Amino acid sequence: MTGQARPAGPQLPPVERLRPGLWSIPIPLPTAGLSHVFMYLFETDRGAYVIDPGWDTDTGYAAVEAGLAVAGYALTDVRGIMPTHMHPDHYGLAGRLREVSGAWIALHPADAALLRLDPMDPAELIDKANAPLRRAGAPREVLRDVTPAHLPPGPLPAMARPDILLNDGDRPDVPGWDLRAVWTPGHSPGHLCFWEPVNRLLLSGDHILPRITPNIPFGTGAADDLLGDDPLGDYLRSLDKVDELPAEATLPAHEYRFDGLSERVKQLHDHHEQRFGEVLAALAAGPATGWDVASQMEWSRPWAEIEGFVKRSAVAEALAHLRALERRGLVRERPGEPPAWERIPA
């Protein structure tokens, strides 16, 4: 390993050879916030196999082509594509890359069930994004704040259907490598990490990042059955699952690679336990909507200054914590428009 590559500001980190036959290639993202996703490339005697090729933009496509060239490959040399999950910053370019190379695409069945196979208009995406806000009782003016201006221009492209469904413990056919898929639901219902035992590397996707915590979606209406009824509980159990792996280094999809997997797992557990405490404190005075609970939790900025999709994510996180506490028998949801939550007396 060549050290921890921490990008300064918006500058992308370099293409790097991390181990013999293993490369990291940063692919720029078109959205505010995270500047890039890491595509990981495995060299084999049959060609290149990649994890997380990035968002479907011309800039991203050019970065994939340039990064492959640094490792000695062309786009047509790609033989397998393994997105960790179906979010567009990881899965978006999979179809385009398959078209030029003939490579197979592998994905977990739970995420394959969520794929959109036709383009989505920004207005439709906004409506879906507002679902957790409506469910939580957000004021009308807040719903108007989440607009297409927060999205990349134009409709979101259709997502390619995978050729292979990877389940927990499956070993994708990557010649010369003993990769194992590790199902880690939470950030998405079919999120996969990949374990490489020879070098003791965990390719963690968005499941474990070195600095930030992944958003756990909840409250999106019709998609709830696919997302699962306790995504945060799934996520916390998935943390324990990967903590059992004797990883020497973790290679995430964003930010920078890091050592100390168990320490990071503990930090994430502690973070969510603190969040549980904030939620219970918000309900101490009596029943409250998800919106009211979220507004009383601690965020990186004052609640009044949080806008757009960031506020939507905050509300979804509050709802996910409420549902997990419900599963623990500590709170319950009271039906209504919107529903309210209350603590269950000890």
UniProtKB/TrEMBL annotation:
SMART domains: Lactamase_B. InterPro entries: Metallo-B-lactamas, RibonucZ/Hydroxyglut_hydro, Sec-metab_biosynth-thioest, WH-like_DNA-bd_sf. Keywords: Hydrolase. Residues 36-254 form the Metallo-beta-lactamase domain. Pfam families: Lactamase_B. It comes from the Bacteria. The keyword Hydrolase applies. The keyword Heme does not apply. One of its GO terms (molecular function) is hydrolase activity. This is MBL fold metallo-hydrolase. It comes from Parafrankia colletiae.
